[in-house]
Write a structure and sequence with these properties.
Number of strands: 3
Distance between the termini: 13 Å
Shape: globular
Number of helices: 13
Order of helices and strands: HEHHHHHEHHHHHHEH
Structural class: mainly alpha
Oligomer: single chain
Number of domains: 1
């Protein structure tokens, strides 16, 4: 999230403080989580240069050198979809803020226990279900359509700040490329998470935070919880920055 757009209202802090357990997509308080992420982010028997045509490889090489100040060969073993996240960082501007890292700091300061709805391996396995050639194509499109991607990111941030989860969901799912992999990246994970959330909230008072794209729609976490008989009440928080 761009630094100037980031906000963490008192209402959120109040709910955080009232909870016994802090639940994120991943348990970021576990040092092994990051170690596992670093291990699984790399391709084992290929590189980005093997996945791109000579023309696309030249485009990507020049972009990484001229815009990011790094050699593509230095990061060429990273899975393309994860490599694309480096480009997204250009959209957030200097000193971006992260809700995950904010909640991690708050968890450590409070001494509360953090739990994850999935493991790093499970998360990376979802990405691995998308063919590497397709991931590489997404990477090149993010480069060749950089201005369009930046505009779409800014639009997504603005919709997020409006606190309308259904509009966030629609904006994400209407992307024709993303829609093709929605089951892998969103819906299947939602089903698994709801089962875990049910077990957690039966035993603990939980503060649960996941990506906003998982909340909206008929297959979103909120709708799935309602189908299980839970009452879901939205809370409108005070205006952002």
């Amino acid at each position: 999230m761009p630094h100037e757009k980031f906000f963490l209202p008192n209402m959120v802090a109040k709910k955080f403080n009232a909870a016994d357990k802090i639940v994120l997509e991943l348990n970021l308080s576990d040092a092994s989580t990051m170690n596992e992420a670093q291990r699984l982010m790399f391709m084992t028997d290929t590189t980005i240069s093997d996945l791109l045509t000579p023309e696309d490889l030249n485009i990507a090489t020049n972009f990484f050198a001229d815009t990011l100040g790094m050699q593509l060969s230095q990061v060429g073993k990273i899975k393309p979809m994860l490599l694309s996240s480096i480009i997204i960082q250009l959209f957030t501007g200097p000193n971006p803020e992260s809700y995950e890292q904010s909640f991690l700091r708050m968890t450590k300061a409070s001494g509360k226990e953090m739990m994850g709805l999935e493991t790093v391996k499970e998360q990376i396995n979802c990405i691995d279900k998308i063919p590497l050639k397709e991931q590489a194509r997404f990477l090149v499109e993010a480069i060749t359509e950089f201005d369009k991607s930046k505009k779409e990111f800014q639009q997504l941030v603005n919709v997020y700040l409006s606190q309308n989860i259904d509009n966030v969901y629609k904006l994400i799912i209407e992307d024709p490329e993303f829609k093709y992999f929605a089951d892998i990246l969103i819906y299947n994970r939602n089903q698994k998470w709801v089962a875990k959330i049910e077990n957690l909230i039966k035993e603990h008072s939980c503060f649960i935070a996941v990506g906003c794209g998982h909340l909206g729609g008929e297959k979103g976490i909120l709708a799935l919880m309602q189908k299980e008989g839970y009452s879901v009440k939205p809370v409108q928080i005070e205006s952002q920055k």
